[in-house]
Amino acid sequence: MLSTDLHIHTNFSKDGESSVQQIIAAASNAGLDAIAITDHDTMDGYRTAQAISSGILIIPGIEISTREGHLIALGIDSPPESGQPVLDTIQEVRDAGGVTILPHPFHRYRHGVALRCHEALYEADAIEIYNSRYVFAHANRHAMKLANKLGRPVVAGSDAHHARFVGYGRTMIDAERDVGSILDAIKEGRATPAGKKTPIRYYTKQSLRNSWRKIRGKVRK
Predict the structure, then answer these.
(1) Is the pTM of this model over 0.85?
(2) Do the beta carbons of residue 41 and residue 79 sit within 8 Å?
(3) Rounded CA gap, 73 and 78, in Å?
(4) Most buried among 60, 84, 129, 190, using CB within 10 Å?
């Protein structure tokens, strides 16, 4: 059984705060076997991680901004174009041999896809039912209840934007220690979510910083 974190951001994401090296070190300290670096609309974090020697298996990943919201893609070589319909992006990732996950699917302010495209719950390979960055548990519970009702594979993710929170959302996966085996296990439902909340004080502080950054960007335009 492998301990993994399938949803992590580095400073290659605009809102990420830690370097790839810091993320990998944190994953090692947290006792993880594998991580997916899922920066927003770029795979540069993953590519940087490939050049770093460590005992952590790095899964190719990206969090794509689709027309309806965010979508995680794992196991692909190059990033799909952002801003496309989510169902088209899911198919593109599938054609490339990758796996898709709906992250925070019911969070209104974090681009939850399921709020705008219910069909994606059936088309994506798995649903993230535990995201450690929820202040309140309602959205996680809603995702878990619906995934169970639909019989969909489930995962967890820390959604860490700082190294200290890597591993706060874990997925225990019944697989061999290689990317192909892990992706197959996710699709086949051989994954068990677990985790703990990111502290509210940190999440609130980061949300305020991100809001201020967006406001400044609009003013400058």
Answers:
(1) yes
(2) yes
(3) 10
(4) 129
CA 68 vs. chain centroid, Å, equals 16
3-state SS string over 46-60? HHHHHCCCCCCEEEC
Question: Tokens representing 155?
Answer: 């995962």
The closest of 143, 136, 154, 142 to 194, measured between CA atoms, is: 154
CB-CB contact of 5 with 32 (8 Å) = yes
Structural domains of the chain, ranges and CATH numbers in brackets: 2-220 (3.20.20.140)
Residue found by looking up tokens 């088309």 in the block: 123
Compute the half-sphere exposure of residue 85: CA atoms within 13 Å on the CB side of its CA: 8
Taking the CA atoms of residue 96, residue 184, residue 39 and residue 60 in that order, the dihedral angle to the nearest 10 degrees is -70
Q: What are the DSSP calls for 30-43, one per residue?
A: TT-SEEEE--BT--
Dihedral pair phi/psi, residue 75, rounded to 5°: 80, 20
| CA–CA distance, 23 with 29 (Å, rounded to integer) | 10
